[in-house]
Automatic annotation (TrEMBL):
InterPro entries: Acyl-CoA_DH_CS, Acyl-CoA_Oxase/DH_mid-dom, Acyl-CoA_Oxase/DH_mid-dom_sf, AcylCo_DH-like_C, AcylCo_DH/oxidase_C, AcylCoA_DH/ox_N, AcylCoA_DH/ox_N_sf, AcylCoA_DH/oxidase_NM_dom_sf
Alphabetical list of Pfam families matching this protein: Acyl-CoA_dh_1, Acyl-CoA_dh_M, Acyl-CoA_dh_N
Protein name: Acyl-CoA dehydrogenase family protein
Annotated organism of origin: Pseudaquabacterium inlustre
Cofactor(s) annotated in UniProt: FAD
EC class of the enzyme, as a word: oxidoreductase
Domain Acyl-CoA oxidase/dehydrogenase middle: 121-219
EC number: 1.-.-.-
Amino acid sequence: MSTSPDTDFPEIRDAVRALCAEFPDEYHRKIDAERGYPEAFVDALTKAGWMAALIPQEYGGSGLGMAEASVIMEEINRSGGNSGACHGQMYVMNAVVRSGSEAQKRQYLPKIAAGELRLQSMGVTEPTTGSDTTKLKTMAVKKDGRWVVNGQKVWISRIQHSDLMILLARTTPLDQVTKRSEGLSCFIVDLKQAIGHGLTVRPIPNMVNHETNELFFDNLELPEDALLGPEGKGFKTLLDGLNAERTLIAAECIGDGYWFIDRAAKYAKERVVFGRPIGQNQGVQFPIADAFIELEAANLMRWKACAQIDAHQNAGAAANMAKYLAAKASWEAANACIQTHGGFGFACEYDVERKFRETRLYQVAPISTNMIFSYVAEHVLGLPRSF
Ligand SMILES: Cc1cc2nc3c(=O)[nH]c(=O)nc-3n(C[C@H](O)[C@H](O)[C@H](O)COP(=O)(O)OP(=O)(O)OC[C@H]3O[C@@H](n4cnc5c(N)ncnc54)[C@H](O)[C@@H]3O)c2cc1C
């Protein structure tokens, strides 16, 4: 059932749907139960070129825009899959496209496009500072032509399924900068070289099948040219990528939302209790209709964010608002879906409980709802800073 009036990019939708159809519910359910990584699925997406959508053609990618990339992510989630296994490849890599030197682009992008390298980890969050990103404590100090990194990160995803990570560290102490967003720098870390040589990784078991880790840096040495973007301007380098991240995740939530609504509507038509389909009862219909309306509205903001990013405009407000609206709409759709399924919503074989867990994450990560409210209050409405 197609619930979206949006007919944009039908060729991309059809092609991604056809690929996803080769990986049915049973595949994703088994991977979830085993807490495994969907290697075959991610490989197929990579080989088909979908993961290289945002890489410019001159570096071996297809040079598509954010709108097209968002459709790819949406379709993965709409098919029952979880883009969380691989979405980092799109938005983390985007930081290299936007901020990398020519040498870095030539070194990494063609190999990422060809599927020889995975760049799908981004190390920002720290245990003692959390959402207060500019206070992060991991330090990178220049010494004898190398960067020496010490500190700790938490919740860093896909480390065990990535070759490279973008790391945000402080290069000038906080008390020596005039603005707290200054003095932070981004680095490209070769994970295979780093692990066991100054970087220790400890997995965090969690509610979803999402590989995420604590990282401990103990005098990790990085080459001088590991710096991504200008020294001290890492927060800006990161922010450019974060708007892409938020917009792509909004699209994933839209995909999840349509999946929940499709499943809820189908089950409501089929399940007969009290001698009639449960979907004939307005008490069952209305939450599904409500969630659909919210989802359609969120989708409009997603397209606005895509358009602004593709036009190289400041997409901060639209990207944050799209992520907020879409995560909320998909969560409402998830609740309507599980309620419609009654007890069967809790049975693994219906996949509702798996998608329910997966979509819940997006009200916390990569940015929690309150931080979006705070951004809009301060940067859009001009209200005084609260922190
Ligand atoms: C599965 C998973 C994967 C992740 N992957 C990554 C990753 O790959 N890379 C990475 O860098 N990070 C990652 N994260 C971290 C994620 O971005 C953070 O969890 C998130 O930004 C919130 O930070 P925190 O957990 O430290 O919460 P805290 O900052 O401790 O906040 C806790 C709660 O308090 C609220 N709060 C805090 N301060 C205020 C305030 N001043 N006003 C109002 N409310 C406030 C927050 O909104 C939140 O709801 C991941 C997290 C999870 C769960």
